[in-house]
Amino acid sequence: MFILNKKSGVISEASNEDVINHCKKNSDEYAVADTAEELTGAAAPVENPAPADPEPEDPEKDSDDAAGDPVADPEDEEPEDTEETDYAAMSVAELRKVAKEKGIQGYANMNKETLIEVIKAHE
Predict the structure, then answer these.
(1) pLDDT digit string (tens) for 84-113?
(2) Could you tell me the pTM of the whole model?
(3) Edge-to-edge strands of the sheet including 2-5?
(4) Sign of torsion, CA 82 87 90 94?
(5) Distance CA 111, CA 99 (A)
(6) In this structure, is the dihedral angle defined by the CA atoms of residues 89, 101, 116 and 56, taken in order, positive or negative?
(7) DSSP the chain
(8) For residues 103 and 5, is the Cβ–Cβ distance under 8 A?
(9) Contact 78, 50 (CB under 8 A)
(10) How far, in Å, CA of 69 to CA of 10, rounded?
(11) Residue 115: count of CB within 10 angstroms of its CB
């Protein structure tokens, strides 16, 4: 199977079913086809995508809750077992190591963006 990253325009061959299923579910970001030729006209890369709308600020954030108690600051809490990892700050080599540890197949042929998506899907 071949996968087109619609954002970058890169077409990659994939044999990992997890990757293929992830890309099929995210059809707004990826196109999947049996041959690369089927994807060549599927989407052109977006050079300067429009910035995403910023999320509206929550007026109750950092305020008191209904009982009058201060809202707990997430940084003050004990870290949980499932810490959020900043995969974007990691190198491709580090991401491939994480993918290997998680048992993801085909990680050696994936680019950074695909590695991040597949690793997150595996969590």
Answers:
(1) 678 889 899 999 999 899 888 888 888 998
(2) 0.39
(3) 11-13, 2-5, 30-33
(4) positive
(5) 12
(6) negative
(7) -EEEETTT--EEE---HHHHHHHHHTTTTEEEESSGGGTTTT-PPPSSPPPPPPPPP-TTTTSB-TTSPBPPPGGGSPPPSSPPP-GGGS-HHHHHHHHHHTT-TTGGG--HHHHHHHHHHH-
(8) no
(9) no
(10) 51
(11) 22
Per the listing, tokens 């970058």 go with 8
* Structure token pair of residue 98: 């994480």
pLDDT tens, residue by residue, 7-58: 887 888 888 888 888 888 888 888 888 887 777 765 444 444 555 555 556 5
Q: Which amino acid is at 35?
A: T
What are 52's two structure tokens? 């995403």
Number of neighbours of residue 46 by Cβ within 10 angstroms: 11
